[in-house]
Amino acid sequence: MDVQATTPLDPRVLDAMLPYLINYYGNPHSRTHAYGWESEAAMERARQQVASLIGADPREIIFTSGATESNNIAIKGVARFYRSRKKHLITTQTEHKCVLDSCRSLEAEGFQVTYLPVQKSGIIDLKELEAAIQPDTSLVSVMTVNNEIGVKQPIAEIGQICSSRKVYFHTDAAQAVGKIPLNVNDMKIDLMSISGHKIYGPKGVGAIYIRRRPRVRVEALQSGGGQERGMRSGTVPTPLVVGLGAACEVAQQEMEYDHKRISKLAERLIQNIMKSLPDVVMNGDPEHHYPGCINLSFAYVEGESLLMALKDVALSSGSACTSASLEPSYVLRAIGTDEDLAHSSIRFGIGRFTTEEEVDYTVEKCIQHVKRLREMSPLWEMVQDGIDLKSIKWTQH
Amino acid sequence: RSPRLPARELSAPARLYHKKVVDHYENPRNVGSLDKTSKNVGTGLVGAPACGDVMKLQIQVDEKGKIVDARFKTFGCGSAIASSSLATEWVKGKTVEEALTIKNTDIAKELCLPPVKLHCSKSLFLAEEKTQLSP
């Protein structure tokens, strides 16, 4: 139940990819023979499939190796192209690491970046965004759906603000594409990052949407033979992009049904856990929320020990022990979660192929082990005795 | 809705928990509490919820200074729980002075803890120290 990390291939996607892994192995940029022509046709078909999922023109879709590369292109590419006149960017504190790291590397190049804080709900304050925009701001980057807590940002409103202030708007939509309806024109999005393996497509492929009207200029990151309109040189991997295209088409067909089913399962998981266990907190706004990504904190129980208990379920935690450093998740910190609750958080992911049995099993094990671990917890004991944990002077070590 | 592969037998990669840690975690020894108001019982509480590690260690000492019983409760990761459990096993039957000689590196070695988990056993040691100071 860790679909935010990655998803299995939808069988229909595999079906679409196989011919291009076996017989149709031509390089889509080979102009002179049928191998090339048929690969090119497949690539362009895939491009149309991706474009139609987000309401774009196929000429606005560039294939990349994944959302990380797309984010790099969007942020560094736009910033560097306009660097003579514009030196400022805006993003949020809850973005994916590749966005934050790209911004950090731009700061080392002399750019200035504003990292907007988020409210307790996980959503940015639109007034703060407006106030942060300066005359020399080139780009605003805000992710559509957060990968840790599932919170949905007000993309259409942000698009409106950016368009009226003539600032480009980029959104990392890796967790949102194919799951919630997106339209780059209605939402006034100028650049968008798409990831293949988050939407039941193959790993190693993604795309970036770059608006043509009005044209967004981007400095290419990768130099070479000029493929993908010069924005991303390198042979386009036909089987992978065919997979991405098929995944997008399937997602468009299944979006409504998937959303309904996942919402029901999410509701079931949350209700059943909360009615059997006290002191469970859901991190992130419950209303502006993608149902398939549920982040819960179980007070007085540490996250990693709970993951160890739920060993036959694939889950992930915002606890320090599971990351390489001893710091808990920066996203949870940004929404103001108390540090001890941040150590107690688990992320449950529900996807297209998650079954009701799996959800029920996970809920049952979770309840059983949280109860067991609370019996072993000195904090739970103290709370049962009526002690206010916030009044204790803890010793550091 | 789609054909699923049968659940695979997960073989624990070397990076994951050592058998001993899992054993102590699933069958922890000496979880619980001793009567903290009793004169023979010493209680030590170390760590902070903000660090993700809180350990409570209690020992019951007889008139000759020998530890006859020990209990623990831990808020922390699997390694922290295992370290506490192992420590309560080790201190039983020792005198207070002998128990103080147990080092956190001994515990880490016994459980084959990776370097990043050393701090979990360290806080245990501190808890021990505090416990000695109480009665």
Highlighted features:
heterodimer, A: 397 residues, alpha/beta, Aspartate Aminotransferase, domain 2, Aspartate Aminotransferase, domain 1, 2 domains, seven-stranded mixed β-sheet, four-stranded antiparallel β-sheet, 12 helices, 13% strand, globular, B: 135 residues, alpha+beta, Sufe protein. Chain: A, three-stranded antiparallel β-sheet, 5 helices, 3 strands, disordered N terminus, iron (chain B), ISCU (chain B), iron ion binding (chain B), transit peptide (chain B)
What does this structure look like?
The complex is a heterodimer of chains A (397) and B (135). Chain A has 397 residues and is an alpha/beta fold. Chain A folds into two domains: 11-251, Type I PLP-dependent aspartate aminotransferase-like (Major domain) (Aspartate Aminotransferase, domain 2, 3-Layer(aba) Sandwich); 255-387, Aspartate Aminotransferase, domain 1 (Alpha-Beta Complex), CATH 3.90.1150.10. Chain A has helices at 11-22, 34-54, 67-81, 97-108, 126-132, 155-164, 238-276, 303-309, 330-334, 339-342, 356-375, 378-384, and strands spanning 61-64, 88-92, 112-116, 137-141, 168-172, 191-195, 206-210, 280-282, 293-298, 316-317, 345-349. In chain A, the strands form two sheets. Chain A has a seven-stranded mixed sheet with strand order 1-7-6-5-4-2-3, sandwiched between helices. In chain A, strands 8-9-11-10 form a four-stranded antiparallel sheet, with helices on one face. In chain A, strand 4 (137-141), helix 6 and strand 5 form a beta-alpha-beta unit. In chain A, helix 1 packs antiparallel against helix 7, helix 2 (34-54) runs parallel beside helix 7 and helix 3 (67-81) runs parallel beside helix 4. The two termini of chain A are 35 Å apart. The model of chain A has no long low-confidence stretch (mean pLDDT 94). Chain B has 135 residues and is an alpha+beta fold. Chain B has a domain at 19-111: Alpha-Beta Complex (Sufe protein. Chain: A). Chain B has helices at residues 19-26, 78-91, 96-100, 104-111, 118-133, and strands at residues 41-48, 53-61, 67-75. Chain B has a three-stranded antiparallel sheet with strand order 1-2-3, with helices on one face. Classes of the chains: A alpha/beta (397), B alpha+beta (135). Chain A binds chain B through residues 10-11, 300-305, 308-309, 311-312, 319-321, 324, 326, 328, 338-340, 343, 352-353, 375-381, 389, 394-397, and chain B through 1-4, 7, 10, 17, 22, 25, 28, 31, 33, 45-56, 73-81, 116, 119, 122-123, 126, 130. Chain B: One of its GO terms (molecular function) is iron-sulfur cluster binding. Chain B: InterPro entries: ISCU (IPR011339), NIF_FeS_clus_asmbl_NifU_N (IPR002871). Chain B: Keywords: Iron, Metal-binding, Transit peptide.
